[in-house]
Design brief:
Elements (H helix, E strand, L loop, with lengths): L4 E6 L4 H4 L13 H15 L5 E4 L3 H14 L3 E3 L16 H7 L1 H9 L12 H18 L5 E6 L1 H11 L18 E7 L2 E9 L14
Parallel strand pairs: 1-4, 2-3, 2-4
Antiparallel strand pairs: 1-5, 5-6
Helix pairs in contact: 2-3, 4-5, 6-7
């Protein structure tokens, strides 16, 4: 069995987002704007009648999920595998500060080369595998009638979804980042899961075109 739809939802804004700081797994809460974003997005997602609600256990994702929980009555199922990439001692730095401290690492990140984040954090490949495994497990627990919402983080979601869909790593940079409180909608198709919407902030609409893929 498999879920009928997966909505992978990035958390609302934090003060560190506004300051362009690397967050990783630092437990930074939503700011006032982020809370408003979560409430507005939750009202839209509630109209999809979600049946299960998962979240990273970090405050910013948990609080985002909490707004949908209030509207739907769904219990939040927390999962550490949905956390953002671990950046270890880079947390709190801006990319400019990182470039001043470790220019080689900053250059590798910008060029997409393999680079462990922080002294003892994760690589992009490691967080992608962790997140993709979580999506595989969560989707397999559902039925075709389920719409499952997953409140999580931007980088982990982007690369984890790509790996989950079998997209080659060389193509991951072609998929843009998710804005605060935007989401990716995934549907099961004939040949596996497919993207319905990417970086969406409005509800999915039926596709009316000459493209027969459903």
């Amino acid at each position: 069995m498999s879920a009928g739809r997966l909505i992978v939802w990035r958390h609302g804004r934090t003060e560190w987002n506004l300051q362009d700081k690397i967050q990783g797994q630092a437990d930074i809460p939503l700011d006032a704007v982020g809370l408003g974003q979560a409430r507005a997005a939750a009202a839209r997602l509630a109209s999809l009648a979600p049946t299960r609600l998962f979240a990273s256990d970090l405050k910013r994702a948990a609080a985002t999920a909490g707004e949908l929980s209030l509207l739907t009555g769904l219990k939040i199922e927390y999962d550490e595998a949905l956390r953002e990439i671990d950046v270890d001692d880079w947390a709190g730095l801006t990319m400019a500060e990182l470039a001043a401290i470790n220019p080689e690492a900053a250059t590798r990140i910008r060029s997409g080369e393999p680079q462990r984040r922080g002294s003892n954090g994760e690589t992009v490949e490691e967080v992608a595998a962790r997140f993709a495994d979580a999506l595989t497990r969560i989707s397999a627990e559902g039925s075709s009638e389920d719409t499952i919402v997953i409140a999580t983080h931007g980088l982990a979601a982007r690369v984890g979804i790509c790996l989950f869909l079998g997209i080659p790593q060389t193509s991951w940079p072609a998929f843009g980042g998710l804005a605060n409180c935007n989401w990716v909608s995934l549907l099961p198709g004939r040949a596996g899961w497919r993207i319905e919407e990417w970086n969406a902030g409005s509800l999915p609409e039926p596709v009316m075109s000459d493209d027969p893929q459903r």
